[in-house]
Amino acid sequence: MLQGLKNKLNFSVKNNEELDSNLPYGMPPEEGSKPYPRPVQVVANAIFFVWNNILLQPFLRTWGFLAARTSLTFWIIVGMAVGILIGNFAPEAGVQLKPLGDAFIRMITIIETPLIFSTLVVGIAGHGDDVGKVGRLAVKTIIYFEVVTTFALAVGLIMANLIKPGQGVVLFGDTSQVEGMAQQESSITWYGEMEMIIPKNFFVAATNNQILGVVFCAAMFSCAMMKADKKSKEFMLRINDSMSMIMFKFVALIMNYAPIGIGAALAAAVGKNGVDILANLGKLIGSLYASLAIFVLVILIPIMFMARVPIFGFFKAVAQPWLIAFSSASSESALPKAMENMRAFGCPNSLTAFVIPCGYSFNLDGTTLYLALASIFAAQAGNINLPLATQLSIMGTLMLSSKGVAAIPRASLLILAGTVTQYNLPYEAIPMIMGVDAIMDMGRTSINVFGNCLGCCVMSRIEGSFRGMEWREEEIDRRRLRLMEAERHQRQNDGLSEEVSFDGHGNTEKFEHQELDDVVVVHDGRADSVNSIEITPAPPANKHR
User: Fold this and answer.
1) Where are the bilayer-spanning segments (predicted)?
2) Contact between residue 334 and residue 322 where contact means Cβ atoms under 8 Å apart
3) Closest CA to 434 of 420, 453, 455
4) pLDDT above 50 for 54
5) Segments forming the whole domain that contains residue 513
6) Mean pLDDT of the chain
7) Distance between CA 136 and CA 123 in Å, rounded?
8) Per-residue pLDDT tens for 221-246?
9) What mean pLDDT is predicted for residues 431-458?
């Protein structure tokens, strides 16, 4: 047996020695075959060298570098550009891509209820037993939302009177849809909105994505947990904390599909509407985007200065949810990423989980501005000169009717149709607006998300918790988990034990007792928005005063 094995080994070595080193790579001679002529070998080696060393390997290295180093924002922008090109030059193919865009929104919608519920429960019940604190936060938040949306309505009215987007527009179109929408809007009443806030069944509210109802149930559940015994409270906190962590990992997985889904959604929108429609109502579209830009510059940025929100850091943190909302024209698709980035930016869980979902019903800055502008557009298109008192009355009506209807499909058009009916404005303006509504929806939806993220930061400042001790403790925990996960993967790759120390060197006290005196959050732009945290020790206290 040993002799047979020895013969096999000798045969193998003998065959290897017979290989001709001048043959092209990977081409051992077959038994009984003759080597290729020398010129053929030289040409084959040259072709392989050019292909492998000059073309293939540099391409793979460059692509790998881009895939590893470029941010999710970069790929979303690439997806948007590709989607616009497909929709413009191949509109039929662009329309066929719509299911891919719908799939992205559906995947985001799947996790909204467990994400909002779990983060809100952990945020409220996990930081004390003060039920009154929740009520005070709710009152302050709603007051802030009302003030900002009032400014948005005012900007829309002023810009509509200055630019006059409806002058010279010839009205046409079928008004039968508008009458049905007006009747549907008339059914939206204050008690109907109250039923959305306080649902009959939590699971019905969760199924229908009634965000405000989910927030109410989570807040009441959290208050009940505060009153429960310690054992029950800790048990439910562990469950919801694990659920929250898993949901954010779920978001990270979905965000990898975002460039494809967003590109497909834009391709379908451009392929269906085309770019020619911009010429017909270009003044209205331009007026809306100019008004939104002025609202950000004149209202929101001064609020950042007054609240001492780091402007450049905020724009960096809000870039991804803003792009997602703009390209998908869906506030829901940006909700998980907005919550994740605001947590990383400096807002504690308790505020982020409460303020941002509430803002989806009470802080629709872009939508309220659009409604004011579109109402005056309808009057101008019908050559109706509205007095100032009537315009202020429209402003008050929109302030009340635009709240709490975010879960209703095409809610802004419903509110607009009801306003047109109430003030006897021409119906024919609504079908024209519907023709470009998808284009305007992108702008107003992105400002809705922008305003909600800013509202979260402002309320954190008002409560004194922006990058405060509560957030620092949460950030230490998040960093500890990230490092533990990274070391676990490293140990698995090295074939070592899966036992993980908190700091990677067996020193757990470094994380348990180190204070975050000066925290710098480093974002890498990918789905996990916090890459690392640099800690600069605080200067020693001055004992001699």
Assistant:
1) 72-91, 103-125, 137-163, 202-225, 246-268, 288-307
2) yes
3) 420
4) yes
5) 469-535
6) 74
7) 15
8) 888 888 888 888 888 888 988 888 88
9) 86
Which amino acid is located at 126 in the chain? Answer: G
- Residues 285, 156: Cα–Cα separation, whole Å: 13
Give yes or no for a contact between 503 and 511, defined as CB atoms under 8 angstroms apart.
yes
User: Phi then psi for 543, rounded to 5 degrees?
Assistant: -80, -20
Q: Are residues 457 and 479 in the same domain?
A: no
Contact of 279 with 150, CB cutoff 8 Å: no
Question: In whole angstroms, what separates CA 358 from the centre of its chain?
Answer: 16
Based on the fold, state whether residues 379 and 438 are members of the same structural domain. Answer: yes
Q: Please count the other Cβ atoms lying within 10 Å of the Cβ belonging to residue 184.
A: 15
pLDDT of residue 171: 64
**What's the one-letter identity of residue 263?**
G
CA 432 to chain CA centroid, nearest Å: 30
CA angle 442/448/454 to nearest 5° reads 135
| Nearest residue to 342 via CA among 237, 213, 466 | 466
**CB–CB of 271/429 below 8 Å?**
no
What H or E segment, with its residue span, contains residue 18? Answer: none
3-state secondary structure of 529: coil
284/247 Cα distance (integer angstroms): 40
The token duo for 467 is 């990058």
Domain boundary (438, 462, 486) is at 462
Q: Which residues pair with 521 in a beta bridge?
A: 533
Rounded Cα gap, residues 416 and 439, in angstroms: 17
Helix (H, G, I), strand (E, B) or coil at 156: helix
Band of the pLDDT at 504, cuts 50, 70, 90? very low
The dihedrals phi and psi of 346, each to the nearest 5 degrees, come to 145, 5
Predicted local confidence at residue 477, as pLDDT: 81
Residue 395: both structure tokens together: 């402003």
pLDDT greater at residue 78 or residue 7: 78
Residue 28 has pLDDT above 50, yes or no: no
Domain boundary among 462, 486, 514: 462
Q: How many domains does the chain have?
A: 2
Among 459, 464, 467, residue whose Cα is nearest residue 362: 459
Token representation of residue 264? 């497909």
Q: Is there a single domain that holds both residue 184 and residue 313?
A: yes
Please say if the pLDDT value at position 500 is more than 60.
no
